[in-house]
Amino acid sequence: MGDKVLILFKILPEEPEAIEAIEKALHNIKTGKLEDMKKEPLAFGLSTIKAAITIPDKVDGLMEKLEQEIKSIPGVSQADVEMVTLI
Hints:
Blueprint: E1 4-13, H1 19-27, E2 33-43, E3 46-56, H2 62-71, E4 76-86
Antiparallel strand pairs: 1-3, 1-4, 2-3
């Protein structure tokens, strides 16, 4: 008991100017805990955000709720789960 799930998200902003607002919003998510975040260049001045977020294990629907919370951040064009692992 007490296990956590680490989820790595790849987040694409709608435009380059949205990156800072998205980063601030990720620090304030309610569904999980932001563990790490970094920007990675994509193309044409656009970057993606890689965000590692932990949630408690064995809570039904929490991962879907977290994904919806991230996708609802203003400026987010797309948010994809890249990896899920127990820690």
